[in-house]
Structure formats: C-alpha cells, structure tokens
Design brief:
Ubiquitin-like (UB roll); 5-stranded mixed β-sheet; about 80 residues; single chain
Length: about 80
C-alpha cells in the first residue's frame, strides 16, 4: 500500500486528506497518478495532470519520476505563489 496525503485545495478536490492505494505495479511517482484514478474524483486527477504540484516521498521532496516502495507515504502539495 502507498499512503497519499493531499494538502490545501487538492484535499478539497479529493474530499479527503489521505488515500491509501495498493502498490500493484507502481514503480514511480508518475505511476501513482494512474493508480489514483479509481480512488479519487476526476477533478483531482485533472489538477495533477500538469505535474506542477510538489511531491514528497517519505517526507522528502521528490520528482515525478521518484521510485516508490510498498509502505511509502507520498505527499502532494499544490504550487504556491507569493507576492
């Protein structure tokens, strides 16, 4: 299983702050996007398609090609802007 934690408006789009999904054949965080599809609303998937969100694996920032392992905790944070 991989635990996916969602933050800010991504949490609102999903209607939850965390989702657990089976590891299956996922090997990278990119594979995770496809793995999320049956577990979250389509609006969340659309929000993640451009990969502008920040992602972490086991509380360390990672890229969308980072390897995953069974039991990983993945955080997905929307892009932020400042001024």
């Amino acid at each position: 299983m991989v635990k996916v934690r969602l933050f800010a408006h991504l949490r609102e789009l999903a209607g939850t702050d965390a989702v657990e999904i089976p590891m299956g054949t996922m090997q990278t965080t990119q594979d995770l996007l496809d793995g999320l599809t049956p577990h979250v609303p389509p609006a969340l998937i659309e929000a993640l398609r451009d990969q502008s969100a920040m992602i972490s694996v086991d509380q360390r920032y990672a890229g969308w090609d980072a390897p995953l392992h069974d039991g990983a905790e993945v955080g997905i944070l929307p892009p932020v802007s400042g001024g």
